[in-house]
Amino acid sequence: MSHRIAVIPGDGIGVEVIREATRLLTMLSERRSLGLDLWQLDLGAERFLRDGTTMPQAVFEEIRDTCSAILMGAVGDPRVPSNQHAIDILFGFRFGLELYANIRPVRCLADRLSPLKHFGEKDVDFVIFRENTEGLYVNVGGQVRRGTPDEIAINEDINTRKGVERIIRAAFEFAAERGLTRVHMADKSNAMRHAHELWLRVFREIAKEYPAIQAVHAYVDAMAMYMVQDPASIQVIVTCNLFGDILTDIGAALQGGLGMAGSASLHPGKRIGLFEPVHGSAPPLAGKDVANPFASFLTVGLMMSHLGHRELETLIEDCIRACVQAGECTHDVGGALGTRAASEAFLTRIAARLA
Ligand code: NAD
Ligand code: IPM
Ligand code: MN
Predict the structure, then answer these.
(1) Residue 131: which H helix or E strand, with range?
(2) pLDDT in tens, 246-286
(3) Do 284 and 206 lie in a common domain?
(4) Are residues 284 and 254 in the same domain?
(5) In total, how many domains does the chain have?
(6) C-beta 295 within 6 A of ligand 1
(7) Domain assignment of residue 179, given as a range
(8) Is the CB of 75 under 6 A from ligand 1?
(9) How far does residue 355's CA lie from ligand 2's centre (Å)?
């Protein structure tokens, strides 16, 4: 079985880390006969600035109809203040393919990566299910009397029964499949009494279908605190789009920083998935060979599980852990290597394990 993989390098450090992730994909494909057919796409800020193209409909449709996965680097470039290309490409996939489950593992791979005094590798291991197609990201709203003292700016928070139910169910299904015993749902139903009352009600309803799993409701402000204060008590968190964005950056910090956090956007049951590191294009780091490529490798790991090769995700994690422990890593995680050298060290380890 072969798989076509669309590769979009994105902007800034996205380009540098996706280049290395592509080397990993090629190696895995060759050594494990995965039949991966990588399709490099010229999309991102450079292309937009060159000819105004963001995401052509025909390309979107070809990706939708022929690919098993999209590997994508961060988009965002100071030369495009409107962020139009990023919105068209990133939300084009998340919304256009209805990839409603943004799955972001928070796993600290080595004790010395933990910023917490009392917690490390054995304590920080959970997964955040972020709703990925609704909420404040739908961008329903508008501006009135723009630029005047009376201006009004509105973004509506869109929460549908269907959307809330499917992400909460996905989180419980994931917990059930992995033999986990607890799911947290983080909302702000004490203040957002329409939208998040729906979240709380649906959470309680779905929880009844999973009696073996403890369903814990937390207000998102307290959830942010528990993540830092008591990470070992967390197994799965499900939350809305915006809160998920924020909590997953806190999660990244627990793993050693944004250079260590990968993500998958899926529609359970659908073939295609979108795979991106959690981090952005980090303009101040771009072109300096300092970006940590490990988040993009962890992202490839998530893709491998999606394609049915969970053992390769574990292998990738093992090799990253070994690199970090040996100091074969970039500055952000305590090493002295550049992007290319850290990647080389990792690829050498993984090549040995795949031999
Ligand atoms: P950022 O993730 O680019 O950077 C935040 C901090 O983390 C910076 O200090 C940066 O140096 C550090 N960092 C991030 N990735 C790193 C890596 N791989 N190695 C080492 N250090 C790393 O977030 P930001 O500065 O808020 O955003 C910059 C741009 O990226 C913006 O245009 C934003 O919209 C965009 N962005 C895009 C995505 C995406 O496309 N998936 C995600 C987040 C941000
Ligand atoms: C992320 C990013 C995006 C988001 C931005 C770039 C729109 O922060 O993937 O976490 O908020 O979803
Ligand atoms: Mn984010």
Answers:
(1) strand 125-131
(2) 999 999 999 999 999 999 999 999 999 999 999 999 999 99
(3) no
(4) no
(5) 2
(6) yes
(7) 102-266
(8) yes
(9) 37
